[in-house]
Amino acid sequence: MSIADQFLHKSLIQFKQHYDCQEAFFSELNQRLSTQGYVEESYLSNIISRENIYPTGLVTSTINIAIPHTDPQHIKKPFIDITKLNSPLTFIEMGSTDKKVDVTWIFALGVTNGANQVELLQKLMRLCSQKTTINKLQSLTDIEEIYQFFSLNIDL
Amino acid sequence: MKNINVISVCGSGTVTSSMVAEKVKDILEVNGYKAKTVEVNPGGVDGQLTSGKWDIIVHTSPLKGTYQLPCINAVGLLTGLDEEGFIEELLKTIEKLDI
Predict the structure, then answer these.
(1) ipTM
(2) pTM for the whole thing?
(3) What are chain B's domains?
(4) Could you say which of B42, B61, B79 has the minimum Cβ distance to residue A58?
(5) Which of A59, A107, B8, B69 is deepest in the core (most CB within 10 A)?
């Protein structure tokens, strides 16, 4: 199974105007993931506390992103949940305790332990370093296009 | 080839640390070192230090304590934003090690 087949799901891609705070995002994320059977009941509290201790905001050469994820035991099946924000949401930068990053793309990763997940992260990071490709991504306006974009670019 | 033992640390000790460990292995191999790596979360560092001999820590999450061995932040390597800076710091640090 390809990386895209394994992780990418149309029902886990959304455009969002704005969130008041991280918790509002996580609560909506949890709602979506638990309704569709991707996560355990413990997911919400774990992802919030984990983001506090081990923040996941990342500045890349193109876009600022966050890759929130939990420990594997809270995940039922692997996923990448993609949110494009119109106005940025503040995260703390990975590896720091206080550096703020305003992100417009959130890739919530549902990781269960397999080696493929390292590959997913590598592909995502490589993608974020490619200016032309990311410009293309930024111009997309519907879910189907985003889905096609990642199907194509995550499996390269 | 000289051997270098590297502890790679991220929040869960799985995905990010594995990706960083793979990259570090590749970088070191190109530069004439053979790396052994282990991936742990910040709570797992002490255990590794008492049970084995390690030369260097690379990390993408904040560490729990301060350690005797050199610690390098690897977020720039992860994103590729400061890969060069990371490589430079890594190689400089390793040259100073007594191995």
Answers:
(1) 0.83
(2) 0.92
(3) 2-96 (3.40.50.2300)
(4) B79
(5) B8
